[in-house]
Amino acid sequence: MKKILPLLLYFFSLNFSAQKISSAKWSDLFSYNNVLAIREDSGKLIAATENGIFFYTPATGEITKLSKANGLHEVKISAFDYNPATKFGLVGYKNGSLDVITPEGITYVVDIPIATGYSGDKKINHISITGNLAVISVGYGVSVFRLDKKEFGDSAFFINSGTYQASREAVIKDNIVYAATSTGLKKHEMNVTFPIYTTWETAAGGDFTQIAKGDILAYANTNMVKYGDGSTFSTLPQRFSNVQDVVVTAQNIIVADLNAVSVFGITGNLIKSYSTAEQLNTGFFYFSKIYAGTKVSGILNENGDVLKPDGPYDNTSYKISLLDDKLYVSTGNRTNRYNDASPNAKNLGFYYFTGSEWIYPTFFVNSSLGFNVMDVVANPSDMTEVFFTNYIPTGSQGVYRMKYDPSRKDFEVKKVYTTGKDFYHGRPLGLAYDKKNNLFGTVAYLDIENTAGNSGMMAYDKSSDSFSYKTLKMGTGVQKPLISDGYIWIPLPRDAALAAVNYKGTSSVLDDDIYFVRKTAGLPASSEGIISVAMDRSGDLWIGTDSGVRILSSAVSNIQNDPSVNPIIIEENSVGEELFRDSSILQIEVDSGNQKWISISEGGVFYLNSTGEKTINRFTKENSPLPTNSVTDIKVDSKTGKVYFVTLDGVVVYQGDVLEVTENFGDVLVYPNPVVYAQYKGNVRIRGLAAKTNIRITDAAGNLVHQAVARGGSYEWNLTNHRGVRVASGIYFVLMTNEDGTDTATAKIAVVN
């Protein structure tokens, strides 16, 4: 068991302090649509969703949220329960770990007992809290967890005919554990023989999916709910189509069917019901009102009001586009070395953030087509016009042009552009606009010019409302293009090569010249493909392969002249080592200070200085709110300094320190300020600096205590003087000049030790 630094919180006051993996610099763009469980305490409804928990106060309408960005330790919640009497909550995850939430903090538990020889799913199926005890259902039985001690007690591993049997749900009532399984309702007193499965009794035969307890016990299969005292049971008079959840309170039995919530008294009398058009996971009854927990719309009350934090339709994400304050998130994916479409089972398209709210096009909800949207971009000259690529082997493959109607808050498809002769060919992937608002894209297995399906590119002609195509005459697969300095740079993920297309500033592809960076130019010998590229502010092209990073210096001037690329060599224990050798480079992003953000497959994100020789920071799922260690896209908003990290399990945002950097100063900000040691022990950050800034820090008497040269628009001071000793309490003056001395800035820092 591993305890993270306590939050010093009272759970439902929602005043969360920083933890090891979260801070005020992080926020989430998670979806809170898929409500798995609803509980209540002190006038707040508590809803557990796929990637976080939200709190709704019916009296005021206030909604707040808790996720990995501000307290939790994981994503992919699969079970939740809360005891209002003890203020203890327990969150279970699909990977088998737990978060224990108490008034003293949040503790991460990873050492859940696992049955010997069990190799199946570790998902936490269900959690039920009784006093200071919780019974946890998993794929191999049940475990009892002591909340006050944050440790496990006995476990019972269900072995039926030599194979492990799952406990779907389980509860504790009167010192007896009842478990719903596929072979009956099992029960056992919590005594010395509890761990021995052969001593468990079958209280009722059948295939049961749900169980809940309050003053009474209730359990269910697909169509029927029984209730009673644990020894004798009656059947609710109503038949159900597909029971999703059963909740028992002091006065009620709440049954969530596929599309309706029904509330019964504890004697089985129907009190009221609420039908919805939504698929449901759960339901709750509070102050004589029904709240339905849906799969895709958060909580619905009886008025049909949607209650949830604003967020995208789903957590599945792949690429993100930024345009002013608007966001566009695609949800597609590929397998088999960037070759085959891997559409999400939910058949998602893209999500759109208007700058104030999230929109999910009804086209994706209502259409019978298949979707594997790899990229979506908006027209910079008309942001209501959007293009997206659908990379999928069905009749829906192609490029789609849509129009956004702000009055309806929805999109309408205006045209679909077929990109191939059949489903195998013409797989559209990435799109990009140049500075003249010309739209270009990349196509895998392009079937033109008598080729067998080479990688290719496409260009949109506004006047004819059509795309023209050009084969690269090599390779098959492609990645999203980068347009920079008059060239379209196209990574080829299934070939150790990069295409550079001189498109001559026009939307015509007929006269374009194509150049290549091949393996003979110095790409890694083990590389089988190039995955990502980025142009830095010095004109050097950073090339991410499946086996490391290479740099094409002065890319535009060298691409036509037998170019060569070089690795970045860093010194490790006085020995030169190649940066990211044998690592798969998923994405490279350059901020306005010329620092590099680089994501590694299964390795998190590295933040490097301009040359790549120094690591400024590294974020992983273990030390940050990242949902996974494979970040599929990174985007930096130079206006706000925000860094967007996109994963297949959701999007999180880091508030960086680098805004738009020029040769002169921007709005210089020092934070935190004042620096009170009892409250904060980190570095002081200064942002809004010039591209190169000379810094001198003096005390109130004018004595120099620190000096440095900052590059990239920001600087951190560790509050030590030139001897490495922490400075005394007092006021310190920061005197700054840009590189040529034509611009200056000053600031004051108050230090309280």
Secondary structure layout:
Elements: E1 26-28, E2 35-41, E3 44-49, E4 52-56, E5 63-67, E6 77-83, E7 88-93, E8 98-102, E9 105-109, E10 126-130, E11 133-138, E12 141-146, E13 151-157, E14 159-160, E15 163-164, E16 169-173, E17 176-181, E18 184-189, E19 201-204, E20 210-213, E21 217-220, E22 225-228, E23 233-235, E24 245-248, E25 252-256, E26 260-265, E27 270-275, E28 280-286, E29 289-294, E30 299-301, E31 306-307, E32 319-323, E33 326-330, E34 334-335, E35 340-341, E36 350-353, E37 358-359, H1 362-366, E38 373-379, E39 382-390, E40 398-405, E41 410-417, E42 427-433, E43 439-446, E44 454-461, E45 466-471, E46 482-484, E47 487-492, E48 497-502, E49 513-518, E50 530-535, E51 541-545, E52 548-552, H2 555-558, E53 569-572, E54 575-578, E55 585-590, E56 596-600, E57 604-608, E58 615-619, E59 633-636, E60 642-647, E61 650-655, E62 669-671, E63 675-676, E64 684-687, E65 692-698, E66 704-711, E67 714-717, E68 730-738, E69 744-752
Parallel strand pairs: 63-69
Antiparallel strand pairs: 1-61, 2-3, 3-4, 4-5, 6-7, 7-8, 8-9, 10-11, 11-12, 12-13, 14-15, 16-17, 17-18, 18-19, 20-21, 21-22, 22-23, 24-25, 25-26, 26-27, 28-29, 29-30, 30-31, 32-33, 33-36, 34-35, 36-37, 38-39, 39-40, 40-41, 42-43, 43-44, 44-45, 46-47, 47-48, 48-49, 50-51, 51-52, 53-54, 55-56, ...
